[in-house]
Specification:
Layout (H helix, E strand, L loop, with lengths): L5 H14 L5 H40 L1
Length: 65
């Protein structure tokens, strides 16, 4: 494969960057808030699952241990 001319490469990069549709400030803010909400819900879920497993294991160990 032949190496492209550096000037031609830069022109092609500029053409591709011009095709990019950048998100609006509102879209970035909404998706950021949604990520934080989902991360918080996931952390709460795994905390509760861990608490349940730990409590069950402690019950089993104190009962039969």
């Amino acid at each position: 494969m032949a190496m492209a001319n550096p000037l031609q490469f830069i022109q092609q990069v500029r053409a591709e960057v011009a095709k990019v549709v950048w998100p609006t400030r509102r879209e970035v803010l909404l998706t950021t808030v949604m990520v934080f909400i989902m991360a918080t819900l996931t952390a709460i879920f795994f905390f509760l699952v861990d608490l349940l497993i730990r409590s069950g294991l402690q019950f089993v160990l104190t009962t039969f241990g």
